[in-house]
């Protein structure tokens, strides 16, 4: 006959079963807690991914807007500069500007096409075309940066290499730009022909001594 467990053994078995049951309940509670944490982490991950997606979309939109703005700005700047150069040198000149971005830095390549020949202007040293273009670029970039607060440029011998035959047209262009854009120039020059660009002019002696002498310009007569 099978043996009958004693009351002591039954008590021990009940206690063990009770402990196992309590342990199971704890495990179930831990599982539920873990499940809640996993769900919360998943929600946070989804929210973070949503933020990442939104950031990427915003970056893409801003990048496209920047490209559109830059393209329009470059086109307008090149058009104005080309017209100015063509007027001064009496030949068709087409200015091209192309900006590329490398490592979050923008680089602009400037070209000039004349008689079907394209050459790079950026970094050029001297030369009448380079000087006139540089002056135009300074003015237009100054105006575009702060159109209401920056309408003045001071330059030292900015047109020293422009040939005599081109100076009258250069003066006319400077006066036109000043009048149209409400812009003021202050520049030094050894070329008397550049007086035609001035509203007010003074002669200063090379050694800096003596009193500056007021000169007559094409727009005024000096009163004695």
Question: What's the SSE blueprint?
Answer:
Elements: H1 7-89, E1 93-102, E2 105-114, E3 117-120, H2 128-145, E4 152-156, H3 167-181, E5 184-188, E6 201-203, E7 213-215
Describe this structure in words.
- The longest helix has 83 residues.
- α1 crosses α3.
- With 224 residues, the chain is α+β, with helices and mostly antiparallel strands.
- The strands form 3 sheets. Strands 1-2-3 form a 3-stranded antiparallel sheet. It has a two-stranded parallel ribbon with strand order 4-5.
- It is 52% helix and 18% strand.
- It has a domain of 100 residues: Rossmann fold, CATH 3.40.50.300.
Notable traits:
224 residues, alpha+beta, Rossmann fold, 3-stranded antiparallel beta sheet, two-stranded parallel sheet, 3 helices, 52% helix
Helix/strand order:
HEEEHEHEEE
Measure the end-to-end span.
147 Å
Per CATH, the architecture of the domain at 125-224 is 3-Layer(aba) Sandwich
Strand order of the largest sheet: 1-2-3
* CATH topology label of the domain at 125-224: Rossmann fold
- Rg, nearest Å: 39 Å
**Main CATH class of the domain at 125-224:** Alpha Beta
Count of DSSP-assigned helices: 3
Briefly note the structural class of the backbone.
alpha+beta
Task: Give a quick account of the main beta sheet: strands, pairing sense, barrel closure.
Answer: 3 strands, antiparallel
Give the helix level as a range of percent.
Answer: 40-55%
The strand count comes to: 7
Q: Flag low-confidence runs.
A: none
Based on CA inertia axes, which overall geometry fits? rod-shaped
Mean pLDDT: 76
